[in-house]
Amino acid sequence: MSSSTSTPDEAAFLEWFTSQGGSVHPAVGFKQWEGQGRGCVALQDIEPDTVLFSIPRSILLTTSTSALPSLLPAEEWAELGGWTPLILSMMYEYLRTSTWKPYFSLLPTQFDSLMFWSDEELAELEGSTVLGKIGRDEADEIFAETVKPLVEKHAAIFGDAKDYSAELFHRMGSLVLSRSFHVDSKPESQDDEDEDSDEEEEEEREDVADVAMVPFADILNAKSGADNARLFYEPTTLNMMSTSHIPAGAQIYNTYADPPNSDLLRRYGHVDEVNNADLVEIGLETVVDLVGEVVGMNEEEREARAEWLLEMGIDDTFSIETDLKLPDELVSAIRAFLLTPEEYAKAQKKESPPKPKLDAVSAKWARKALEHRLGEYKTSIADDEALLQDSTLPLRRRMAIIVRLGEKRILQGAKAKLDTDFPEGQAEAPAKDKKRAREGKAGKEEGRKKKSKQ
């Protein structure tokens, strides 16, 4: 790597990286990218299947490579849950050792991810379900009730407890959220399904020992639809390889499984102006409240039917993507709340929710659900589009507007599609026709019975 592209911190990191057995292709350099921070650049044309850099597994920062677990009583370490063992290990290594000092020097200390937004800034996201996924209160509770007492109890190991602040805990947790990789002991000879695990799935994995901070790999930025590199797992190394031609001067992008803007903002602190992976969520509770209450169910009946749907495998959240298709599970849930008590009893016996067949009646309720979700935002699409014309908007407010505007466009688009497929005035016609058909059939049956008696 050309030394002219490196700051002193970058030069120190490269010296440490190569001294630990890492290797870097001469065509890979560091660069500060506007709006994205530090990333990597192609210093010359790079062809597909080129090893950009190779990372020894020995320098991954994990609960297995950190010294901390071996210093604490095993029973106390085992009581730590979630990501807390890795976050605490990172705090210890950052404050008490020099093992990963050159690596920590390149990591950001300030973030635009939602964990660090003020209440006023978060209010700009009103209506988006991402507000329920931030987890700040839960993190504060873990720090106060678990981390702080443990550090104070073992001062001989941790040093000054004041250094282990809530701010540092959130900072290290945000690094794990935004930059960690799932790295298990298997070499990457598996199918694509095993090679490319979903980000949401990675976050929820129970085995924190498989979550790793990966020096160099986490420097690469990501952008929807722009990835040109990918990390491959070998028995002793992790190799970042180009997946397409990268022209000189272009940024080298890793793939982050193309999350929607709400997740990009929550995890990484940025959004994509155009994101084909965007989506909006509708909760099962919207169906419960809108349909269940109107059709005359009391609260206990609504809760029982919702619980049955969950037991039958229906999720509690439905995602509508940019193709504007209503999720099958949403349609099934709506139809389940439209079942008569007799029909519901039969469905329970069969252990089968209604098929996700959209008809005029269920379309009417789907439209109401979309309208309800649109009503949860405090601004209109036109309002947001006008706001984005202001070039002086603060970055966080602009990103919030982009998130909520993308969600509202999907909701409005899905509603427009419903309006075309099932015009609102015709919503009740099929139900009436069905009733007439049943009455007509009953009349014919009665006629046949009378005739047979004669």
From TrEMBL:
Domain SET: from-to ranges: 26-257
Any single biological process term in GO: methylation
Basic and acidic residues composition-biased segments: 439-448
UniProt cross-references to PROSITE patterns, sorted A to Z: SET (PS50280)
GO cellular component: nucleus
One Pfam family recorded for the sequence: SET
Keyword check for Transferase: yes
Chain intervals with Acidic residues compositional bias: 190-209
Assigned keywords, A-Z: Methyltransferase, S-adenosyl-L-methionine, Transferase
Region (Disordered): 182-209, 415-454
Gene3D superfamilies according to UniProt: Rubisco LSMT, substrate-binding domain (3.90.1420.10), set domain protein methyltransferase, domain 1 (3.90.1410.10)
InterPro entries named in the record: Rubisco_LSMT_subst-bd, Rubisco_LSMT_subst-bd_sf, SET_dom, SET_dom_sf, SETD3_SETD6_MTase, SETD6_SET
Descriptive protein name: SET domain-containing protein
